[in-house]
Specification:
Elements (H helix, E strand, L loop, with lengths): L1 H17 L21 E7 L3 E4 L1 H6 L1 E14 L5 E5 L6 E8 L2 E5 L4 E5 L5 E12 L6 E4 L4 E5 L1
Antiparallel strand pairs: 1-3, 2-9, 3-8, 4-7, 4-10, 5-6, 5-8
Length: about 150
Amino acid sequence: MRTLRTILLLTATFVIAAAPAYADSASATMAISVQVIGRTLLTVGQQPASIEVTQSDIQRGYIDVPAAVAFQVRSNAREGYSLQFKPVDGPFAQAKVTWENSTAAVGADGSSLTHGYHQGTTPGRLDVRLVLAADATPGSYSWPVRFAANSL
């Protein structure tokens, strides 16, 4: 038994002595690439819930609503973003929406306005002209301008 222990001790000592006393070091170059996905957030601060159409509006053919919608857009999209307007319906044939110096004619197919990249939050106000359909009747109607913002 003592001999076996001595042999095992000598074998362990030999194995430990044969192994390197330290690990080798190595270096390598690694490239890292990051792609930031564009994100655009729209917050509507105010907009009418409804619009009253009177007989005089029908005779004129339209209703002007200056500064009808107040909103904010925050986007990190370097290519900019667009405001996508959904189609109008009801007694309205079209909505002419103006933001800054651009106007979109929103009809049965919808429409959009684009805006370039701007760091931080961009406030906006939409001036709206609601063009009435030929068969419009006086009454109270839901606000017809609905929109969303999307990164380009």
